[in-house]
Amino acid sequence: MILGEFRRLYVIVRVVLSYGLDELIPRMRLTLPLRLGRRLLFWMPAEHSDKVLGERLRLAMQELGPVWIKFGQMLSTRRDLLPPAIADQLAMLQDRVAPFDGMLARQHIEKAMGQPLETWFDDFEPEALASASIAQVHTARLKTNGKEVVIKVIRPDILPLIKADMRLMYRLASLLPHLLPDGRRLRPVEVVLEYEKTLLDELNLLREAANAIQLRRNFENSEMLYIPEVYPDYCSETMMVMERIYGVPVSDMAALEKQGTNLKLLAERGVQVFFTQVFRDSFFHGDMHPGNIFVSFEHPENPQYIGIDCGIVGSLNKEDKRYLAENFIAFFNRDYRKVAELHVDSGWVPPDTNVEDFEFAIRTVCEPIFEKPLAEISFGHVLLNLFNTARRFNMEVQPQLVLLQKTLLYIEGIGRQLYPQLDLWKTAKPFLESWIKDQVGIPAIVRALKEKAPYWAEKLPELPELIYDGFKQHRLLLKSVDKLTTELRVQRVRQGQARFLFGIGATLLLSGTFLLSQGHAMNSFPAWLMAGGIVSWIVGWKRTA
């Protein structure tokens, strides 16, 4: 490790110990070295023992910066895994991170716009409306049309901190394959690379603006999801201006219940929105934690989500989408043989994997889980158990699926919070079956014909010429093959002659040497034999040229 990485590692250890998070280390034999190491670091005492564990964990992640805040945001949605006291504290990382000074934000906006703020906006509010790990937002009003907007501004000097953490993560990821028996299968460097890409994408607000415009177009006039309007004329890499929205935070259960929101329908629509983005659009919001999701005040009986912060989006190629959908359906139907075959066909496990053994291993893991009612099954637990099982079969982590898995865990966590009886499987299965049927049935053939028809119509007049050119190229190819075959035949003959001459030359040289050793030095015959051997070698060497 370089000096900067050691320094950052020291900061991380100091923060963790100063907030007393070492108490999270379980007391077991495996963790004994860690607990002994903690005692050796006696000069780093816990300084916040007056605070509860959840608050200490939140403050530590907040102090460590955006990489850790993002991790805390993800954990906050897993209320089925964390006690409420910790989950409630981590939820504050979604939009209540300590803001930076509003005057600094004003200077940042004026620098980006190149003119005083009042040239473009009225009623600018220096106090941040919300503050997150990467940026914070301020309210204002457009001078041109009087519409209320929010101005999103990137935190100053955040890039060096992210790069320092990412360098450390890369270093640790490169060591992991050497420390763990199956560390290479986890592909830690590729996973960190994907995570770094998503973080750096969030720093470019022009990218976020483009993502929001695309998502808004995908869900135009939708009852399920609303994406606020973006004003691209005011956007740059470090600031973005968009429509101000009013809604209930999806995590505010009391407010949702007070206005009579249909929570069952709201939870189901969250699942439907996710699968629509993934399979219909192949363009999904990859940061759907509760801080980025609101519920419209209008029509609580027919609730509509409002999505913001589109800095992280993901997509899957056609093959991954098909394998993923078929895997889900096979799980729903408990067709473990199909699951095993799909993993082999997709290349997620090596092609020489024993399908029967893999099927049995999956069955062993999943059957006890499916004994519960479907509404009680956590998709997160299923994934975890499957990954543990797959270690025996050298299944590699798929970096392109990591963001998708994280987003699905977000959705499940939110859905279970809204409606604990949410049956994720029952909600998703009809959608996936319909999508698969649409992809492989007659509608897919008709759609492909429609898509290709303009291209075929354009090329049809050229068809005779293309056929003639094809035959011509075929004849030329046959001539080239015949010529190459003849040259190879001649080369093989020359090589055979060269080997024969090398053999003759070696025989003559050995014979001449033997005769000389038997006392025939005065006779010229051995010399003639050796000379003949040398000549044979020269001729053979020329045959190989």
Automatic annotation (TrEMBL):
Domain ABC1 atypical kinase-like residue range list: 93-343
Which Pfam family is one of those matched by this entry? ABC1
For binding ATP, which residues are annotated in this chain's numbering?
A: 129-137, 152
What kind of membrane protein is this, topologically? Multi-pass membrane protein
Q: Which GO terms describe its molecular function?
A: ATP binding; protein kinase activity
Q: Which keywords are on file for this protein? A: ATP-binding, Cell inner membrane, Cell membrane, Kinase, Membrane, Nucleotide-binding, Transferase, Transmembrane, Transmembrane helix, Ubiquinone biosynthesis
Enzyme class, one word?
transferase
Tell me the domain of life. Answer: Bacteria
**Known EC number:** 2.7.-.-
Q: What is its main location?
A: membrane
Location in or out of the cell: Cell membrane
Where, by residue number, is the active site?
287 (proton acceptor)
- List the SUPFAM superfamilies: Protein kinase-like (PK-like) (SSF56112)
Swiss-Prot/TrEMBL GO biological process terms: regulation of ubiquinone biosynthetic process; ubiquinone biosynthetic process
Protein's pathway:
Cofactor biosynthesis; ubiquinone biosynthesis [regulation]
Which Gene Ontology cellular component terms are annotated?
plasma membrane
What HAMAP family does the entry give?
UbiB
Q: Its biological function?
A: Is probably a protein kinase regulator of UbiI activity which is involved in aerobic coenzyme Q (ubiquinone) biosynthesis.
Q: What family name appears in the similarity comment?
A: Belongs to the protein kinase superfamily. ADCK protein kinase family. Belongs to the ABC1 family. UbiB subfamily.
Q: What protein is this chain from?
A: Probable protein kinase UbiB
Please tell me the species this chain comes from.
Biostraticola tofi
Encoding gene per record = ubiB
